[in-house]
Design the sequence.
């Protein structure tokens, strides 16, 4: 209900923004000509319209629109799907959805196979006697096909059986048009209990309720049960005319006899004989009929399909309009969404799952998505202070005395401090999958900037650096970051260092290139001016070259952020215990499409946040860009 | 404005076409298999015995994991998955995927999958509880994952205290050799052999059999294929059974199998020695009693289904509906 209201609200907002936007365009036509950059400014209402469109598309293709306005439709479609499922095998025999009759298809294929084998036998180097025999067997096999497809040999009973099946289907077609169908009680007692127990569409664990909830559904459910029985009967009809039975039995023994006469050394002959017997086997099992014999069944199925579609009534329209890109499919004792509804989770479900994951006690794989944990200050001290400080303190580390006690001295106290072996207060630090991913990108990027920018500037200013580092940079820059992946586990292990290194080499190359371009692009007149004002080298670098290359550097950072996110996911696929990429990879293995989409959104949002931050920095540090 | 509408409609219609890509009559059969997993019917595959028996070409595609097999089957790109692990199958049917189990392909103890614990750690089955708090490489949702959970249960180790690192078998082996993980669970002969250079199996094949931990792979097929081409599926299983019999009779050409599996002859022999390819009669007797309504297959499915069930994809009430034994050769 709430979802329905929200969808309506979205549509209203979308229309309102479009109307507002159109009005604005009319006004603007007067004071801003085409080509004036003013025309691209102030389009916030279009952002709203865009967001609404995305959400609406999502609601639509995930079939959430269908669920919120027609909550029973999936259950009813499931019953329709049962009917469809009952008919799949019988329809496949006829050119109803296929282009050709299955028997014709089979005969065409086997005739070709026989011809191919025939040619192979003719061209082989085996004795003529064997050749003749094998070809004879092939021709005989082909004659079996002829017998099967000739109405002359058909067992008269078969026509009656076929008509019987056709009549049953026809009477079912008639019956389901009756308002009161099914007149009999089509549900078993177990099914009646199951109906009461089954949940609603989308309830956790019950994707699509299987048993019919409505009178409408009951009709199709009953029809499918009847159909199953009829179809079973149909497939029991075998084309076993006396002529065929006799001939195939004869041929079977001839083939077997011939195979027995072959010596073990006659490998080629044995192989051919085997292939002949394979074709023979397929023909005898094929159960093909003369082309027109089964027509009554085909026509009755077509008629039933028409009636069945008509009976669906408005559900048919709901199916086509509100279940785009797929529909509900019945399989065994379950009904499931197949198509875009399967791999595109519904926004409401996704939101529910997201809130579930956000709960720090739940998280994903025992790690919260984004939370905090208390970390002792001692660990921070341990991380910052190097352990060798203690070694610098004069004296020796204490040893145990006669009483079996160790009395600490100043040196050992220092050691305790630098190794973090003390208890003090704890501070909250962020943790969780999102934070881990964020930290990896942040560290990789920062390292890349810190190393890349100075080197890039150096390369832009010095002939030595430009030449000396050029081969290194140019050689590894074009390598796709993932090409390093196979080495990462061996060299860095499975902890953070490998992933951060991967991100570092990605951002490093980008930063070097952009800083270099910035440095060498500085206007010479500005440098000359600084020189004539008596600036030192350091001052020129700091006051002229660096600010001038900032636009390039900042653009480089923006590019690097994008590439880093791209690489991160793959890096976390490698050996993961935490991180957004890890979550996505595991979710894929368990087919948790909600979680997969959540990770995609989170990554998109984080990328967006990084980018917005960068835009703010760019506007603040180089507001003069593009205005010189 | 008009253009925007046209573009949007174009996008929608292209999405529709993309997502409802139907495929027509079976001009070929598309089958999935694993590399590094030697099975007798690979001889049939190389010698085109399947193509000849079916009368249509068989297109074989190799996959890295059973999950990928399911994904391909769901998208309609694969009809039959040969030797899919039980774990990915059970997760697929928990997620209501329209596929069925039609045959038991390979039965193996710990010879195909297993957990290798590093020598340096000094951990063995006696002090297996020391694994708690350590890092263990496991390819999640595979038979190795199942073996890991079962072994830990047998040795009474608390799995939730172990740091599980999700790694493909080849990566897990490298991580173990480099000392980055204490134990690595994996499948595939090459990977296990690599790991064994710096470690040993925490549970041997005999111990696993004694503890009742058996693993087996299955053949699964899409509902669509089952309904439309039942005779082809029957023939497929028949050819497989034929070549399994050849293998039991010692008539298989192991060179061909080794080459197709991407291993050398010695490794292939070694691997296949630990494999059992049950005959249709054995399958009916042990795995599919009463047409799959009871027997080992449905028992293990139910057990595993509950083990791997999640809130979103809970275990099914009745797993026998995911088994179809009507295609087993007589």
Sequence:
């Amino acid at each position: 209900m709430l979802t329905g209201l929200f969808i309506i609200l979205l549509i209203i907002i979308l229309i309102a923004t479009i109307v507002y936007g159109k009005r604005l365009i009319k006004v603007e036509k007067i004071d801003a000509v085409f080509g004036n950059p003013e025309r691209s400014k102030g389009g916030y209402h279009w952002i709203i319209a865009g967001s609404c469109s995305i959400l609406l598309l999502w609601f639509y293709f995930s079939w959430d629109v269908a669920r919120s306005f027609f909550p029973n439709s999936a259950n009813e479609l499931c019953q329709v799907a049962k009917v469809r499922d009952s008919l799949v095998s019988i329809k496949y025999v006829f050119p109803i959805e296929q282009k050709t009759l299955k028997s014709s298809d089979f005969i065409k294929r086997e005739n070709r196979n026989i011809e191919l084998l025939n040619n192979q036998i003719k061209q082989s180097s085996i004795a003529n006697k064997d050749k003749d025999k094998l070809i004879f067997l092939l021709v005989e096999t082909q004659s079996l096909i002829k017998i099967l497809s000739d109405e002359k040999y058909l067992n008269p009973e078969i026509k009656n059986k076929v008509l019987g099946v056709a009549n049953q289907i026809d009477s079912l077609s008639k019956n389901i048009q009756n308002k009161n169908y099914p007149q009999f009680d089509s549900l078993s007692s177990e099914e009646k209990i199951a109906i009461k127990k089954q949940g609603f569409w989308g309830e956790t664990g019950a994707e699509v309720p299987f048993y019919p909830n409505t009178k409408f559904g009951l009709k199709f459910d009953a029809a499918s049960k009847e159909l199953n029985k009829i179809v079973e009967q149909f497939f029991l009809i075998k084309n076993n005319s006396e002529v065929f039975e006799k001939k195939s039995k004869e041929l079977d023994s001839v083939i077997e006899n011939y195979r027995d006469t072959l010596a073990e050394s006659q490998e080629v002959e044995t192989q051919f004989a085997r292939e002949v017997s394979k074709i023979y086997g397929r023909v005898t099992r094929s159960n093909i009929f003369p082309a027109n014999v089964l027509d009554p069944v085909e026509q009755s199925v077509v008629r039933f399909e028409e009636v069945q579609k008509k009976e669906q009534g408005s559900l048919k329209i709901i199916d086509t309009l509100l279940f785009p890109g797929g529909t509900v499919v019945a399989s065994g004792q379950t009904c499931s969404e197949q198509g875009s509804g399967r791999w595109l989770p519904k926004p409401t479900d996704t939101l529910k799952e997201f809130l579930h994951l956000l709960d720090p006690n739940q998280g994903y794989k025992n790690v919260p998505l984004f939370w905090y944990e208390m970390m002792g200050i001692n660990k921070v001290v341990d991380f910052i202070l190097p352990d060798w400080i203690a070694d610098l303190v004069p004296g020796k580390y204490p040893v145990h005395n006669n009483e079996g006690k160790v009395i600490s001295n100043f040196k050992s106290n220092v050691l305790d401090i630098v190794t973090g072996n003390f208890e003090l207060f704890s501070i909250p630090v962020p943790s969780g999958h999102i934070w881990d991913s964020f930290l990896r990108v942040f560290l990789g990027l920062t390292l890349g900037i810190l190393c890349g920018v100075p080197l890039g500037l150096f390369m832009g200013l010095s002939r030595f650096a430009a030449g000396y580092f050029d081969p290194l940079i140019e050689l590894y820059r074009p390598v796709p970051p993932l090409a390093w992946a196979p080495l990462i586990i061996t060299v860095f292990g499975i902890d953070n260092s490998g992933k951060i290194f991967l991100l570092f080499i990605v951002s490093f190359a980008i930063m070097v290139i952009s800083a270099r371009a910035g440095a060498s692009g500085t206007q010479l007149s500005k440098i000359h001016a600084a020189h004539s004002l008596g600036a030192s080298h350091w001052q020129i670098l700091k006051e002229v070259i660096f600010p001038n290359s900032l636009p390039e550097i900042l653009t480089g950072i923006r590019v690097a952020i994008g590439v880093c996110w791209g690489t991160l996911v793959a890096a976390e696929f490698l050996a993961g215990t935490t991180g957004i990429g890890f979550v996505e990879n595991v979710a894929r293995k368990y087919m948790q499409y909600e979680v997969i989409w959540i990770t995609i959104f989170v990554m998109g949002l984080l990328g967006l946040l990084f980018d917005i931050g960068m835009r703010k920095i760019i506007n603040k540090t180089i507001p003069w860009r593009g205005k010189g | 404005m008009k253009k925007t509408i046209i573009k949007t409609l174009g996008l929608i219609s292209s999405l529709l076409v993309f997502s409802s890509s139907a495929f027509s009559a079976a001009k070929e059969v598309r089958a999935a298999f694993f590399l590094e997993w030697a099975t007798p019917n690979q001889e049939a595959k190389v010698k085109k015995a399947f193509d000849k028996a079916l009368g249509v070409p068989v297109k074989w595609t190799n996959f890295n994991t059973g999950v990928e097999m399911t994904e391909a089957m769901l998208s309609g790109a694969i009809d039959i998955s040969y030797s899919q692990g039980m774990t990915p199958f059970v997760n697929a049917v928990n997620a209501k995927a329209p596929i069925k189990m039609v045959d038991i392909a390979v039965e193996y103890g710990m010879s195909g999958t297993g957990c290798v614990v590093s020598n340096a750690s000094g951990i063995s089955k006696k002090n297996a509880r020391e694994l708690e708090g350590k890092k263990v490489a496991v390819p999640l949702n595979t038979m190795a994952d199942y073996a890991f959970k079962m072994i830990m249960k047998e040795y009474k180790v608390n799995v939730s205290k172990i740091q599980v690192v999700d790694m493909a078998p080849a990566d897990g082996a490298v991580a173990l050799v480099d000392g980055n993980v204490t134990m690595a669970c994996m499948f595939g002969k090459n990977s296990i052999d690599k790991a064994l250079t710096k470690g040993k199996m925490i549970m041997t094949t005999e111990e696993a059999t004694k503890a009742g931990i058996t693993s087996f792979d299955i053949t699964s097929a899409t509902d669509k294929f089952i309904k439309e081409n039942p005779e082809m599926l029957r023939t497929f299983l028949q050819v497989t059974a034929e070549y399994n019999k050849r293998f039991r009779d010692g008539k298989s050409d192991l060179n061909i199998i080794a080459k197709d599996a991407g291993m050398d002859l010695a490794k292939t022999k070694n691997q296949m020695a630990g494999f059992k390819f049950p005959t249709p009669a054995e399958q009916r007797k042990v795995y599919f009693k009463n047409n799959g309504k009871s027997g080992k297959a449905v028992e293990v499915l139910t057990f595993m289904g509950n083990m791997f069930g999640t809130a979103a994809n809970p275990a099914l009430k009745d797993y026998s509906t995911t088994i179809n034994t009507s295609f087993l050769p007589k």
Q: What stands out?
A: Chain A touches chain B through 61 residues (CB under 8 Å).
